Amino acid sequence: MGWEEAKGVKIVTKNFGVPDGHKLVTYRARGGWEAFKKATALAPAAIVDEVKKSNLRGRGGAGFPTGMKWSFVPKEARTVYLVVNADESEPGTCKDRELLAYDPHLLIEGMAIASYAIRCQHAYIYIRGEMMREAKIVQAAIDEAYAAGLLGADHPVAGGGTFRVDITLHRGAGAYICGEETALLNSLEGKRGWPRLKPPFPAVKGLFQQATVVNNVETLMNVPDIVTKGGEWFAGLGIGKSGGTRIVCVSGHVKKPGVFELPIGISFKDLVFDVCGGIPNGRKIKGLIPGGTSMPPLDASELDVPIEFDALMTDPRIKDVEIKPGLPFDMGNGRRLKSMAGSGGVVVFDDATDVVALCARIMRFYAHESCGQCTPCREGSGWLARVCTRLAAGDGHSGDVDLLGTVANGIAGNTICALGEAAAWPMMGFLTKFRADFEAKLRKVA
Amino acid sequence: MALEFSAQAKQRIERLLTQYPTKQAALLPVLHLAQDEFGYLPDEALHLVADTLQLPAAHVFGVITFYTMFHREKSGRNELMVCTNVSCMLRGGYEILHHIEARLGIKAGESTADGCFHLVEEECLAACANAPMMICGDRYHLDLTPQKVDTILDDLRKRWQERARQAPVGEAPAATKMGLGPERKF
Fold this sequence. Notes:
The complex is a heterodimer of chains A (446) and B (186).
Chain A: H1 24-29, H2 34-40, H3 44-53, H4 66-71, E1 80-86, H5 96-102, H6 104-118, E2 122-127, H7 132-147, E3 155-156, E4 162-163, E5 166-171, H8 181-188, E6 211-216, H9 217-221, H10 223-229, H11 231-237, E7 245-252, E8 258-263, H12 268-275, E9 285-289, E10 298-299, H13 309-314, E11 322-324, E12 327-328, E13 345-350, H14 355-369, H15 375-392, H16 400-411, H17 419-445
Parallel strand pairs in A: 1-2, 1-6, 2-5, 7-13
Antiparallel strand pairs in A: 3-4, 7-8, 9-10, 9-13, 11-12
Helix pairs in contact in A: 2-6, 2-10, 3-6, 10-11, 14-15, 14-17, 15-16, 15-17, 16-17
Chain B: H1 7-17, H2 27-38, H3 43-53, H4 57-66, E1 78-83, H5 86-89, H6 93-104, E2 117-122, E3 134-136, E4 139-141, H7 146-166
Parallel strand pairs in B: 1-2
Antiparallel strand pairs in B: 1-3, 3-4
């Protein structure tokens, strides 16, 4: 289906703007918890199959197929946990605050269905510490669901047994790294948010050493409609191997920034110029960050590509990221890096933007947020930040531009978690697409 | 001086412990509680939390210092967290930060002499579509302009002074709490 046909379809934001939409009575009046009833009349495996069929992919960043993730939970696992990652902190991403404040019950129902599908009895929501208002709203919604006998109570299920699930809201305390799923699990266990080596993957040994599924807020909010309307319907809304819609957060130099639910097949050009009204102040677009600052940027010639996961990784219209001109970055086994859809946070910048300063700000962020566990990331991110900052200030040394590429290449692939790549990929991406801007800074010094 | 949790906090801790299979997992929520009670987490609070959850004090120290929202030092009661990450930077986040610095006569990371404000340059606070922005208390202030910031600061200081007058001598006024912000249209 082209994106025009799927325009206007609302799944995750269907209850936005409804007065008192965050209350259970409103949610139920609009058909809430019917999907859960339908789900529990089926076998758990049937729900997993339906989600597989829907082509729902994780909305947190990696785009991993959700149904497949659920199916990795070992059949013999006796304790299974579901953890919702609401620790949104990837710069440029701002959907969770809206989703949690406007429709917390959709998340709770999605969690209840997912818990039934993976046989989880206690689910946790790990919410970013700074989101105090949202935490209050979600806690109030959980309390309502308990009072109504939806949570913490037995429900009859297919095959004659019963199912009950508890949900606990857990507040983070300010650490970007806790958005990484294994760091999040450590944080939830009352430790420092240090990522864990994988394997073992959380599906086998996760929270409290038990089988665990970690899903993004938006991912789970799609689940009730998949159960109600079917996986095929959901898959049909998307393109390729990505079903449904996508929440896109657009910020930076556009006339109408905002959080939008859009068909996953929409192109960046339509997103910027149609949905967001184009670039203000009569300026032209220089480029954009497609999915949170850890993703390599696109330049103005690459905007016809859809925002979909696979397109950003493979579309030939996007240039390969290079360590230096003519030397493509190798992701392993000769795989080339283009970009990724990431978290859906699109940051647009116009032709008056100092991209070196922009890149330096991004590098400062990752240097600040590196947890310090792995040397390449701890030291390398600091190098990238310092060298990029001195270059932006017109204080660069000859060879600095190549140095940035070399250091970035030394980080990527050599760390426990993806924060190393989160710093290295955009660095190499900015160098690939806007090398002239970096070199111009150097020439100013000379 | 030894610190004690209030009866209400003790009750909440009891309940928290039923929600996790280990005591250690309740550490972050209990630290949040302790910081709400005492304003910050000095050594006495650290030991109280460690004893309450039967954890080594060194572990609690490691956790407190890992997360940016836990404070070891007493600071201004109204924490202004101003984002300067890319989305805000592109729309004037640094201008907002510098405006506040000039107006309060402090740099990011410092508190005003009267203890009313503490200013922090923050990383992305997940409100990018409404940049530039800052958080104060539990409230997000969105789509900021220098004029808007002036109004917010004046209002916060007025409330703080009123509370300071009402509060018993020697007790710091509680942080200003406000209700839900205006609904935003999509």
